[in-house]
């Protein structure tokens, strides 16, 4: 068999070294094609791997059924607040804000986190969700001025998050809705 192969190679006018080079090149080309074909699906999902793993890591922070039932069975807001102070994600914001604002801040931070993390192909819905805090702040500011709240009371209504927070908090000193719109 080896003699027949050697005679076939010489009949083609190739030396054994040239034939080996051709065989090696053929193996490399076939290997490259196989790698490209098999890696194509991986490259399609690659942008989602990091966000997916980071979101899954945060999944452990969600309340389980037992924790939810403990919160539901609370008799008053203070018990809920005390329970949430034992949860690291909420403890920080509960130290700075009352319960309702702390929950809003935590929600805004979560939306912002996901919006920053999402691949650009699916980023738009998450960016819109992260703008919800800005929308709520605009509504609160306009409503506060419509009912005549002072600057301190108006500032208390704003959620201290969002891309427009600094701009909106500078408008709490205005006297009317018209002043807000013209500013």
What is the secondary structure topology, with strand pairs?
Layout: H1 2-11, H2 16-59, H3 65-72, H4 77-85, H5 88-96, H6 99-117, H7 123-130, H8 132-147, H9 151-157, H10 165-169, H11 177-182
Helix pairs in contact: 5-6, 6-7, 8-9
Key structural traits:
single chain, 183 residues, mainly alpha, 11 helices, elongated
**What string, H for helix and E for strand, traces the elements in order?**
HHHHHHHHHHH
Number of helices: 11
The proportion of residues forming helix, as a percent range, comes to over 70%
Strand count: 0
What's the end-to-end separation, in Å? 91 Å
Biggest sheet descriptor: none
Shape: elongated
Rg over C-alpha atoms, rounded to the nearest angstrom = 31 Å
State the low-pLDDT regions, or none: none
Note the beta-strand portion. under 5%
Find the structural class using helix and strand composition. Answer: mainly alpha
Average pLDDT score: 85
